[in-house]
Amino acid sequence: MTENLVIVESPAKAKTIEKFLGKDFTVKSSFGHIRDLSKKKLGIDTEKNYKPEYIISDDKKKVVEELKKITKESKTIWLASDEDREGEAIAWHLCEVLKLDKAKTRRIVFHEITKDAILNAIQNPRDINQSLVNAQQARRVLDRLVGFEISPILWKKVKPALSAGRVQSVAVRLIVDREREVIAFNSESFFKVTGFFQGKTPFKADLSEKLKNQKDAIAFLELCKTSDFQVSNVTKKPSKRTPAPPFTTSTLQQEASRKLNFSVAQTMTLAQRLYEAGHITYMRTDSLNLSATAIEAAKNMIIKEFGEKYHHTRTFKTKSKGAQEAHEAIRPTYLDKQKVSGTSAEQRLYELIWKRTIASQMSEALVEKTTVNINVSKSPLTFIASGEVIQFDGFLRVYFESTDDELEDTTKDILPQLIKGQNVDVNQIVATQRFTQKPPRFTEASLVKKLEELGIGRPSTYAPTISTILNRGYVLKEDRPGTERKYQIVTLKNGKITDSEKVEQTGAEKAKLFPSDIGMVVNDFLVEHFPKIVDFNFTATVEKEFDTIAIGKKEWTEMIDKFYKPFHVNVEKTLKESDYSKGERVLGNDPKSGKSVSVRIGRFGPVAQIGETNSETGEKPQYASLLKGQLIESITLEEALALFNLPRNLGEYEGKEVVIGVGRFGPYVRHNSKFFSLKKTDDPLTITKERAVELIEEGRKKASERLIQTFKEEPELQVLNGRWGPYISFKKANYKIPKGTDPKTLSYEECMKIIEQQPATNGKKRKPGVKSKAK
DNA sequence: CAGTGAGCGAGCTTCCGCTTGACTT
Question: How many CA atoms lie within 13 A of A268 on its CB side?
């Protein structure tokens, strides 16, 4: 017989708590929610006051069985799931499913996993808050109704297996809207003028105004030729910089992306491992709060390491919308541990968390900003030099927060001593042509930031939401090469004005989110037919209602009814009245045939078409697939027409034709009925024969290196070099080669031994775009 | 490595949030 059973959500949390509580307590985990609406059906009886039908899924049956058994043997059951509405619902589902006796069940909550907090919680048990549970049921039911009623419309009107939802559809909308801003953007050029002056040491100053064009730039430099330069003003301003708050899920994802180049999913996997190893607190949180013990530990650490002067206790208020404050901020469990063991990625993430946490409890940095104005005697324009001197580094000693801005030179120089009225010499003045910047495309992390600002999604869903919109094919995460751009430079040096032209790379993108054609068509369909659902404020609006339900001032079923009645009418209407949506755009006429040229989404993706089907003459249109990176939205008539030049015959090589085409696996070179893929930077429309031959030779070389070993004993056994390194192939199945083994010297016997010891991973093919999921 | 929405047609796809493995690739 167990005295006390405590149930929490996470097994790692259970382990920690068990240590605090001693042997009268057994601590178990529910592994999150133990039941949910059926995955196959709507699972809501819209006729019977929205009664949800909850099901224990197969992967939860074992957990539930075990909990059932232990609860029967326990005197008191403490439900210790999180204090937010999901946590409350978990506790309620546990009561219902385990049929817990009210008399021996207690609900407790704590906000930090410390011994005091837990013991305190045990002293203050309460009942389950049914209103809070109902707010969760409303949230769950609303999401299900939206997702399961709109998605099937998309299957009929756009393409099968698509999806829509309160969170994902807004995420896609953000990306589509941004892409349209980028498409509509017209870059304008101007001239930025920088003077290189000479004080005691050389320094730089920028002209206060941008000049419109090269003519103006030259005219200004002409004036400078015979001008004097005088310091007209020197101002010194002390300023402060304060440290950023400790990490939440969203800010951790952003900083890990900016500083360590981790994807959002990568960051979460690494954080999970650090959490399970006991190195950090819980990683799915929106709280900025640090426990009293953590603040104390940080204080000791900082004073010991840097001195009293560097310490400053701070508490931070959570500002994000819809924050539910069930946990602490993400911080090291033991602040005196500056490093932990683990993979290099784990260590780097830990270090980032450690620095950010420690910095949040450190003093402000004191900075003196100096601004110097320099008059040009023959022009009303002035040069402005700004410098920054850090007088006390404070928290900067440990950590500085990065930003999304990709500005060129934000580094502030140290200025020499300058006095008002002093004349300065100029070494040279350079006017450089610059260009206004298009709005930045989203990265995974900047999308998370935006979603959090809008109060959409939760710490536990940011990473999965991004996976969903990528898996549905609404959005692509890609690198795109930039284009070359010429720019002009006008220089005044030694009394002479010269101009020159330079070339720079511009517009290159790395790991940015681009909408696909399907993403744009689905978005436009939803914006047209379900504007309310994809409104950026929809979540905020319903959240307010959930809050009212949570304090018992509104029935959840009434709220849902008010939403569902008109929503469902709209669903029926859209099913009946809306057209099949293929995003068609007519581009103009083909100059050769005079027939119309259009683009749209076809059965196999975006396609360009010349002419129409004519049932009388039996005439059929010509088709050509769009290339990667081309959008229905922005493709031009010329670009579309060029697609019909494929496949292109480039002539003969070694007596066989060299043909460029685009197939299921992308652009290729075909030669002697062998296929070689084009590289990302190769354009199938313009690739030369020389380059194609290069690819053919390269492909042959790769193929020859593929085979590492064959064996006389067994023709079906081979050691091969694959995309993931060397492996063993035997009877169409593949086997890993153990680490530290040289594939070149493996004997027949050794191979067979490896095969016996390993389960075969026979190259099963997955459909592209289908999410891999454990069965 | 081609096709470019139907007309024989079963049955399938889908949401958001709470959790961790079990899996290739």
Answer: 18
Q: Are A25 and A4 in contact (CB under 8 A)?
A: yes
Q: How far is the CA of A358 from the C1' of B11 (A)?
A: 57
Using the CA of A154, give the nucleotide whose C1' is nearest.
B14
* Closest by Cα among A379, A595, A405, A579 to A492: A379
The number of C-alpha atoms within 13 Å of A722 and in the hemisphere containing its C-beta is 13
> What is d(CA A526, CA A651) in angstroms, rounded to the nearest whole number?
48
Contact A442, A178 (CB under 8 A): yes
Bridge pairing between strands A74-79 and A105-107 = parallel
Closest C1' nucleotide to A582's CA: B5
What separation in angstroms does the CA of A454 have from each of A78, A192, A457?
35, 36, 9
Q: How far is the CA of A13 from the C1' of B8 (A)?
A: 57
Specify the pLDDT at position A326. Answer: 61
Q: What is the 3-state composition of chain A as percent helix, strand, coil, each rounded to the nearest 5? A: 35, 25, 35
Residue matched to tokens 């949230």: A139
Residue closest to B13, CA→C1'? A161
User: Sorting pLDDT into bands at 50, 70 and 90, what band is A721?
Assistant: confident
Q: Which amino acid is at A260?
A: L
Q: Residue A76 is encoded by which pair of tokens?
A: 């008191």
Which of A476-513 are b and which e, b meaning 16 or more Cβ less than 10 Å from the residue's Cβ? beeebeeeeeebbbbebeeeebeeeeeeeeeeeeeebb
Q: Residue A665 CA to B3 C1' — how many Å? A: 14
> Which residue is catalytic, options A50, A282, A474, A735?
A282
Whether A192 and A207 have beta carbons less than 8 Å apart is answered as yes
Q: Could you say which nucleotides of strand B lie within 7 A of any protein CB atom?
A: 1-6, 12-25
DSSP, residue by residue, A733-765: EEEEPPTT--GGG--HHHHHHHHHHS-----PP
CB A172 within 8 A of CB A471: no
Q: How far apart are CA A109 and CA A123, in angstroms?
A: 11
Longest dimension (CA), chain A: 97
Q: How many Å is the Cα radius of gyration of chain A?
A: 32
| Minimum-distance nucleotide, CA of A602 to C1' | B4
From A48, A553, A463, select the one nearest A264 (Cα to Cα). Answer: A463
Measured in degrees and rounded to the nearest 5, phi and psi for residue A242 equal -105, 150
Gap between the Cα atoms of A606 and A517, Å rounded: 7
The two structure tokens encoding residue A39 = 């995955």
Q: In this structure, what token pair is assigned to residue A392?
A: 């006390």
- Mind spelling out the 3-state secondary structure of A119-184? HHHHHCCECCCHHHHHHHHHHHHHHHHHHHHHHHHHHHHCCCCCCCCCCHHHHHHHHHHHHHHHHH
Residue A762 in this model has a pLDDT that exceeds 70: no
Q: What amino acid is encoded at A1 in this protein?
A: M
- E strands along A619-748, which residues? 622-625, 648-653, 656-663, 666-671, 674-677, 707-710, 717-722, 725-730, 733-736
Q: Is the pLDDT of residue A759 over 70?
A: no
Q: Which two tokens stand for residue A52?
A: 């949800």
How many Å does it take to go from CA A49 to C1' B23? 41
**pLDDT tens digits for range A180-211:** 999 999 999 999 999 999 999 999 999 999 99
| pLDDT at residue number A426 | 96
Contact (CB, 8 A) for A255 and A402: yes
Answer whether A730's CB lies under 8 Å from A753's CB. Answer: no
Q: Does the annotation mark A275 as catalytic?
A: no
